[in-house]
Amino acid sequence: MADPAHDHVGLSDTYEARRYFRKFEGIMSHLGRVAGVMEVEGSLSRRESDVLTRHLTALTFTFRALSMKYLLTGRDTGRFFGSLTIDNRDSGFPTAQELMVMANDAQQAARHLREMPSEAELKRDMLAKIIGDLEIPTKLQFALSQRLYYEELSRGALFWARNDPEAVWLGDLGDRRRSYMLHWSVYDSQLNLPVIYLMEVEDTDPTALPRDERRWPEVQAHLMAQSLGGLKLLTIAKGFDEDFDELHPKRLRRFHVGPMYSHAYTEQTGPIRDVLAHAGSREGEDWALAWTDEVLVSERVRTERAGWFGTNEREIFSIDPLSGGNETGATEQNRALILPERPYQVLAERKPPGFAGIRKFVVGRSGKVLSYR
Question: Is this prediction's pTM over 0.85?
């Protein structure tokens, strides 16, 4: 079995690391607009768009925190600090280990901030170093970058390796029947990619799900345990349906954000490598981001005996064998590519095989996003 570490590389150069974070800052700023385009076209509801944007915003905050942590990468800070480790072959994103370390740092952020000089004190000391000693205050710059990192962590609302389920009430459907949207996300440790889940469920228990001290922790633990990229949506939904008799999953949706391809940072193979190489895009536009949207929908309900006198509802999910549903375990799967204008022009001109059926979201230099089939 191949060692995943062979696909990991550390960004040890100062400017290389900063360009990487600037690139992702730009990419993340476009994803909310992509969700907006999908909402206008009807492929996302307003509620789904709001929830999805919330997770993407948290991911943006995570990149911002990491950019502070590694702001002085490659500089002589007086101690060995390491470098940002990214998966340069399969995802283009930071490795899951980076997020795990960040979560540990967050637990100690308050203590670090108490013990560190304030931002004003550090800036005053830097100014004294520059004027008095005529030196670049690298060690003080490093101390300030670490303070800014811990401040970002202390603000919270970041995308962690595990982001536990939350419930959004959608409405009452009748006597003792409520509808909720459950949403959660993970940073897949095998793929080094963020994955976001949305599930619409109907609850027939007398106690509202988020207030149920017994069921709600069980539901959260169950869903997190099943949040593995290798599991089909059908497997996740069926397991949930069978384990919770009063909860009926009507729709399950999963978004894979990435991989990110960049001629400067990743070792992608195949047509996308040639497209980015020929695009010759200026800095900040040398990228393409894959986006996969899987949906599983319940088409009907069957009733089965439970004990002597009871019955349970069980969902029958829609799988279209003509669209590969039996293989993917989903009602439908939609793949998209988000990329700037110049790489899209090269892609449209070269027309490599396998890309005709992939939707393209093209980002203009003004930031406007256009959709092409």
Answer: yes
